[in-house]
Design goal:
Length: 325
């Protein structure tokens, strides 16, 4: 019988050969995690890695590495990045978080940031902004489960809206930004007349001038509805008027059986000459549409100055009927 040859294997040699350059190319290399950037509620930069949030802590001495700590204060994971926020490594021996990730947080942060941006740059009602952005975001089920309602979100946006709201003026002589002269989409004119603004001067007003400032808001759509109406309702509110004005005067028309406001005016007093001035503004505006303000019936609360102004206003038709309640 032939002798059996026993072959021995050197484990060291095998191990070293497995680490040869040729074999090392076949070994899977650890991949760098993806970093997503977002911002905190205060506008500070945050990084999100695998569903975990990190906020900036400090630099190293040479300013070549940035340190980021987990936003969960009980978690000790530290992230290292380059100055351009590219992943370098996790610091130390603690690389596992002691809490679960929150992947929905990024969706909610981006959603709220877009809402805050619109709240500070647009005049759209806050609830509408919340509803529109929620529909556009296409959130996952996890994000929808923790998302507050539109009313609650709209309420939290109020302090951001206040940042763009001008302070209350100390007199009736104040500047009106263009933002408040147009509708909430900033596409169409809304401020019809300002007695203190020469660019909105109407030649047809003549010498009738009130003692204070008069502001009138009415869009082109509202004006056309006003001029096409045979019945008008007028009313003034005094308790809700802003400082330095005596009242908010509203003219309403009928659309599909419903009263619709078509003119808002801030008036300085309740004198007949002030109401005549307002009516003259509307008559002059009607000429720009090649139409006439010719209602057949006007209903209003009984106020002697309004009654006198309607009676003295020569542009109203002689067939006009008035009802004072």
């Amino acid at each position: 019988m032939g002798s059996n040859k026993l072959t021995t294997i050197d484990e060291t040699e095998c191990s070293s050969s497995s680490q040869s350059p040729e074999n090392s190319l076949l070994q899977p290399s650890p991949t760098k995690p993806t970093i997503t950037k977002t911002h905190s509620n205060k506008g500070k930069l945050m990084l999100i890695v695998n569903g975990y949030n990190f906020q900036f802590k400090n630099f190293n001495r040479k300013k070549t590495v940035k340190f980021w700590r987990c936003t969960n204060r009980s978690c000790n994971v530290i992230l290292h990045t380059n100055p351009d926020d590219t992943f370098v490594k996790f610091s130390g021996t603690i690389t596992d978080h002691n809490h679960l990730p929150n992947p929905a947080d990024l969706e909610l942060r981006d959603l709220k940031r877009s809402m805050r941006t619109r709240a500070t740059t647009e005049l759209v009602p806050l609830k509408h902004i919340a509803e529109q952005e929620m529909r556009k975001a296409l959130l996952t089920g996890e994000a929808l489960a923790v998302l507050p309602g539109a009313n609650d979100i709209g309420h939290t946006l109020k302090h951001h809206r206040r940042k763009m709201t001008p302070t209350i003026p100390k007199s009736s002589s104040f500047f009106i930004p263009d933002l408040y002269k147009q509708n909430y989409n900033n596409k169409e004119r809304l401020l019809l007349h300002d007695s203190d603004d020469s660019t909105l001067e109407l030649n047809e007003l003549g010498s009738v001038r009130p003692a204070g400032r008069v502001l009138v808001w009415a869009s082109d759509v509202q004006l056309k509805l006003l001029l096409d109406s045979e019945r008008l309702y007028m009313d003034g509110t005094f308790t809700t008027s802003p400082p330095h004005f005596d009242q908010v005067f509203i003219i309403m028309s009928i659309l599909h059986g419903t009263c619709v406001p078509v003119v808002y005016a801030l008036l300085p007093d309740r004198k007949a000459i002030t109401y005549i001035y307002l009516f003259n503004v509307l008559f002059a505006s009607a000429k720009q549409f090649n139409k006439k303000l010719d209602p057949q019936l006007i209903m209003t609360d009984f106020e002697p100055a309004v009654e006198k102004a309607i009676r003295l206003e020569v542009y109203f038709s002689s067939k006009l009927s008035t009802v004072f309640d």
